[in-house]
Design brief:
Chain A: Keywords: Cell membrane, Lipoprotein, Membrane, Palmitate, Signal. Chain A: This is Extracellular solute-binding protein. Chain A: InterPro entries: Bact_solute-bd_prot1, SBP, TAT_signal. Chain A: It holds the Pfam family SBP_bac_1. The complex is a heterodimer of chains A (444) and B (294). Chain A is α/β, with parallel strands linked by helices. Chain A has 16 helices and twelve strands. The longest helix of chain A is centred in the N-terminal third of the chain and has 19 residues. Chain B is mostly helical and 294 residues long. Helices cover 72% and strands 3% of the residues of chain B. Chain B contains 13 helices and two strands. A two-stranded antiparallel ribbon of chain B has the order 1-2. In chain B, a hairpin with an 8-residue loop joins strand 1 and strand 2. In chain B, helix 2 crosses helix 13 and helix 3 packs antiparallel against helix 10. The N and C termini of chain B lie far apart (50 Å). The chains are: A alpha/beta (444), B mainly alpha (294). At the A-B interface, helix 1, helix 3, helix 4, helix 10 and helix 15 of A face helix 1, strand 1, strand 2, helix 5 and helix 12 of B.
């Protein structure tokens, strides 16, 4: 007659389950790992796990596994960062588990450090490797003196354009400066075509444009973040785009590489894309585009830098990893050794190489798709070398980009301008950063 | 004695799953909605503490204008879209169940078909009919001098409503048909003998007797409206009208999965659940009162 489980036991069990649930949602000892003693390299064989959304990453790991017999790397595919991958990584770390290495976009690296999810690699001698990396790539994983991840690929900006229509049909030349970009955009608009389209809610183009202009929006000074999102270079850049938007010289109907974009680009109605070098692989899927497209420098300002960076990823060693030294050894190989770079380009289709002097074998050749141009050597490499090395990503970058994207929607809708919106966004962002306990100052 | 424990043993697989995938996450979400994380140092390297925040997250959610705007937006959406959809479902169901309907099976299947298409795919399909330059509808309207931008800030909400209506009308119609089929034939016979015409049968027999099904579909639709997610998410890359917190669920999703602010996300999720609960209860209350009057 008695119930299977006495009521008191059942309640106790429930309370235990509840307590376990509560323990799980407390933050992990953020920063604790980076204050404790470094973990020495292991004597025996080591197996590393690696979560990333790059395709066929296991084939890259297999090459490394075959090259030595101490470390075995197992790669697991996860969904893209904001499509659920980040939530998966952060939940695993919060529960005290997770892989040794995870893919984190360059701009999200400080955000992961903030969540206590990363191992500071400067404590494992990673600073000595700086010379082996492309300075533009290495600069993006640095916050103060800490090195939070290994850069895996970057996206130096360039201009991809439909040469056939642009030069052949309209008799234009690719713009060298942003002023020329405006003139060209007027010509293209007059001809009933579109020079470029922007996703109206994607704020990531704003830091891309600002870093090229020479601004450093987020500056770490001691323990304080100094915000410069409304400094003179930024305002000059904002004023330029206000003019472009007011005169409707670029389309804000849909973003590049969206379904309607491909349809329009295939018809020769949308003529160019100014963005990260990884855009090449996507542009190669424009229907009927072969031999018609070409690559040119990103239009630039009189001052500032040759290019900016858009996108790119890192491979980060998580704070829960028990083998950070071995993980770093593998990542060193993958991201600087020519074998590693070539394997990543061939199997995973990464963006621009993070290594100092090696762009990848297949990228030294002329491209059939891009009008027989050796565009990687002739265009992208100088763009990668002309980056703003002072740029630092802030924590909460995803939120900042979304705030900028919402501001951009207001600009597109005619309710605001970039020159008005950016200072407002800066105030909001300072408030958001302060709310979680960071020290923030707005530069005067 | 054995028979006493048997049901528990047999139910155990379900109960365990239910406890760990439904009850526990809800409890954790509620607990989390009262917690906040404070960090120190440039990127939190000087430590982080999770502390009890009282109603801070709730206040932050309710003073987050993007979030409150999204709730008001969904209310406007629901009032129009749910009404249109339920009326359309009811009319379709009544027509298909009327004596003079031809090939009711075929049409039932045809109307139900859109429900089988996942929301994301449906939205991509519809986007081809919305995007200027690609859409034959926009072109055709342009020829007769009507310029519409289906994805503009003022129109996109109703473009989404159109997709949702297209998807769910057939599904709701099926629920109503199931109830119509349960009406005993002798009621129709009696009505016929009393000389009731088809319209009279609808108003005096069918509509009153399908009220439970209508209630069910209305409550499902209210909850569905508050949970709108895939359609605006997919359209956001093509529309200047959709921000990152366009619907309450998109807002909670952004905080949970993009901003890693679980306290705020949980508070928003609890508010969404409470709103769905209150609205559903209100719908039931109105229905009961109307039922008593008639």
């Amino acid at each position: 007659m008695r119930p299977l489980v006495p009521r008191r036991t059942a309640l106790a069990g429930g309370a235990a389950a509840l307590a376990a649930g509560l323990a799980a949602c407390a933050p992990t000892g953020a920063g604790k790992v980076n204050a404790e003693a470094v973990i020495p390299p292991s004597d025996g064989p080591v197996t590393l796990t690696y979560w990333a959304w790059l395709k066929d990453l296991q084939k890259v790991a297999d090459k490394f596994n075959a090259s030595q017999d101490r470390i075995t790397v197992n790669a697991t595919w996860i969904p893209g960062g904001n499509a659920g991958g980040y939530a998966k990584i952060l939940s695993a770390v919060a529960a005290g588990g997770g892989p040794d290495i995870a893919q984190v976009e360059l701009r999200s690296v400080p955000e992961f450090a903030l969540a206590g999810a990363l191992t500071d690699l400067s404590r494992y001698g990673f600073a000595d490797d700086e010379k082996d990396f492309d300075p533009g790539a290495f600069a993006q994983i640095k916050v103060g003196d800490s090195l939070w991840a290994v850069p895996q690929d970057t996206g130096p900006g360039a201009m991809f354009f439909n040469k056939d229509v642009f030069e052949g049909e309209l008799g234009l030349t690719p713009p060298k400066t942003w002023d020329e970009f405006r003139t060209v955009a007027e010509e293209v608009t007059k001809a009933g075509k579109t020079l470029m389209t922007l996703d109206p809610g994607d704020g990531s183009v704003l830091p891309f444009w600002a870093m090229q202009k020479g601004s450093v929006w987020f500056e770490p000074q001691d323990d304080t973040w100094v915000l410069n999102m409304a400094d003179d270079p930024t305002m000059e850049m904002a004023d330029f785009w206000d003019g472009i938007f007011a005169d409707k010289l670029v389309s804000t109907g849909y973003g590049a590489f969206s379904t309607p974009w491909y349809a329009a680009a295939g018809k020769g109605d949308v003529l160019s894309y100014v963005g990260g070098s990884w855009g090449d692989a996507l542009i190669e899927t424009v229907p009927g585009g072969k031999g018609k497209w070409a690559v040119a420098d990103m239009p630039r300002w009189d001052d500032g830098y040759a290019s900016g960076g858009l996108g790119g990823s890192s491979a980060a060693v998580l704070s829960t990893s028990e083998h950070p030294a071995e993980a770093l050894e593998f990542l060193r190989w993958m991201c600087t050794d020519p074998d590693g770079i070539d394997a990543m380009i061939e199997n995973s289709g990464i963006g621009w190489s993070p290594a100092a002097d090696y762009i990848g074998k297949s990228r030294e050749k002329a491209s059939d798709f891009f009008s027989g141009q050796k565009y990687n050597v002739d265009v992208i490499e100088p763009m990668a070398k002309g980056q703003n090395l002072d740029w630092t990503w802030a924590p909460l970058m995803q939120r900042i980009i979304d705030r900028l994207g919402d501001g951009m929607l207001d600009v597109v809708g005619g309710g605001s301008t970039f020159t008005k919106m950016l200072p407002q966004a800066q105030d909001d962002i300072a408030e958001i950063m302060r709310k979680i306990g960071l020290k923030v100052e707005i530069a005067k | 004695m054995r028979s006493k424990s048997a049901p528990w043993v047999l139910m155990a697989p379900f109960l365990l799953l239910f406890l760990f995938t439904m009850v526990l996450p809800i409890i954790i979400a509620i607990v989390q909605s009262f917690l906040t994380v404070q960090r120190t140092g440039l990127v939190g390297e000087d430590g982080a503490v999770s502390r009890f925040a009282g109603l801070e997250n709730y206040l932050a959610a309710l003073t987050n204008q993007n979030f409150t705007d999204s709730i008001l937006r969904m209310l406007a959406f629901g009032v129009v879209q749910v009404t249109v959809m339920i009326v359309a479902s009811t009319i379709l169901a009544l027509l298909l169940e009327s004596a003079s309907a031809r090939w009711p099976g075929l049409f039932r299947a045809a109307y139900f078909l859109p429900y089988g298409i996942p929301g994301v795919i449906a939205t991509i399909l519809w986007s081809f009919l919305y995007v200027p330059g690609l859409s034959p509808i926009v072109d055709a309207l342009g020829w007769v001098g009507i310029d519409v931008d289906f994805l503009g800030p003022n129109m996109v909400l109703w473009s989404i409503a159109n997709i949702v209506t297209w998807t769910y009308t057939g599904y709701n119609m099926l629920i109503i048909i199931a109830q119509l089929k349960a009406i005993p034939a002798d009621l129709y016979e009696a009505a016929k003998i009393d000389g009731a015409g088809p319209l009279r049968v609808v108003t005096s027999i069918q509509l009153p007797l399908i009220r439970p099904a209508l209630m069910l579909t209305i409550i499902f639709s209210i909850i569905g409206t508050l949970q709108l997610f895939a359609e605006p998410q997919v359209l956001s890359s093509m529309s200047s009208g959709i921000n990152s917190e366009y619907t309450p669920n998109l807002s909670a999703y952004a905080y949970a999965f993009q901003y890693n602010d679980l306290g705020m996300a949980s508070a928003e999720a609890v508010i969404i659940a409470l709103a769905a609960f209150i609205l559903s209860a209100a719908a039931l209350g109105i229905s009961n009162r109307l039922g008593r009057k008639s």
